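Protocol step 4 of 5: obtain the predicted structure for the target chain.
Materials: sequence only (see below). No template structures provided, no constraints applied. The aim of this step is simply to have a reference model before the mutagenesis design in step 5. Sequence pasted as it appears in the construct record:
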Amino acid sequence: MGSHGEEENMAAWLLGVNNLKILPFKLPPLGLLSLSLSLSLSALVDLSTPSPHDARIRMKAVGICGSDVHYLKEMKLADFVVKEPMVIGHECAGIIEEVGAEVKHLVPGDRVAIEPGISCWRCNLCKDGRYNLCPEMKFFATPPYHGSLADQIVHPADLCFKLPDNVSLEEGAMCEPLSVGVHACRRANVGPETNVLVMGAGPIGLVTLLAARAFGSPRIVIVDVDDHRLSVAKKLGADETVKVSTNVNDVGAEVKRIKAAMGATVDITLDCAGFSKTMSTALGATSSGGKVCLVGMGHSEMTVPLAPAAVREVDVVGIFRYKNTWPLCIEFLQSGKIDVKPLITHRFGFSQKEIEDAFEISARGGTAIKVMFNL
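Step 4 output (structure tokens):
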């Protein structure tokens, strides 16, 4: 390929249900970030005042998230609807190719992990440090904003985090899902004196398990309906695993089994599935005065036994994405406190057939945990 301007930047475009195509993706001049993100020209900022704080990054590793699969299958997720063709992908890392005039902490050639959400930094939530809740958030591959499964992207340099030599680009891309687990552990105050129950051994449940251990939890029990996922969780360091059913009538008996497996108080439960049954189990299993953190969003509405938990003063908190997690994730990876490499089960290149095969494998589940593109 030639230098920037001589090559055609290509990206994976979501065109319709089960319709992904690699097509040209025109990047803006450095600084005109909203042009690369917005699907609507009416949403652009004044193009005559470019920001010098952006970086152009060549993508090297992009993971498939459950939300990416959901958009492919449904063209919508919760209240977000894909109305126009959209570049997909948001778990990513790459190599800096060019930086704006005011960027001081990065130079071309630096390997970086990328935080995919751009908040406004003006609203009260941003000013209060809770920028993940910003109502104006521009997030990769969340309509109407393009994602990062592309040869190159332009992104604010302050959201690009330099990787140490002993942390790979694939591990850098894994900082995004790992950030969910780290943020959940922070919200729930996981520490050396808290025994943790994790509901769900999917990709987010597994990174949450790893994060809880890195935060010092002395005992972790993980629950799932799938034997293979539980075996993976055990290899990743879960102290005990409990196989459960999808039948809500089994909650009472399963709570007893979970408590027996923990062999101590369940101080914190992290529900990484987010169904009525998992939340009911979480509320029942968590000890009086404990905390339940809702991480997964399997159901947007739930019927759960809240009153019995309330009279035991079980606190319920939720999370949305993450904030200020990349430096800690990178430190965990660099120090060896967390090893995400076993979670990457499938790898693909960036061709039309490979993106179709990769999404099919990711959607099928089975033994696939994290499917990764190497660009």
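Step 4 remarks: The mean pLDDT is 92. The CA atoms of residues 174 and 308 lie 38 Å apart.
Proceed to step 5.
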